[in-house]
Amino acid sequence: MVVRRIDEEYVISTASSLVRINSENPPGREAEIASFLAEKLSELGLKARVDVFDGRANCLATSMDFERAGLLLLTHLDTVPAGERRAWSLSPYAGIIRDGKLYGRGAADAKGCIASMLGALKTLADQDVEFGGGGLVFAAVADEEVESQGVRRLLGSGFRSDYAVVGEPTSLRICAAHKGRLAIAAKFAGRYAHSSRPELGINALYAASEFALKIEELSNEIAGKRHSFLGPPTASATIFRAGEKDNMVPGWAEVIVDYRALPGEKLDVILDTLKRTAEEIDQKRGTESEVIILRWISPAEVDLGSRIVKASVEAVRSALGREPEITGFQATCDMSYLVNEAKIPSVILGPGSLEQAHSVDEWVSLSELIAAAKVYALIIFKILSPI
Question: Bridge-partner residues for 188, per DSSP?
Answer without folding.
Answer: 253, 289
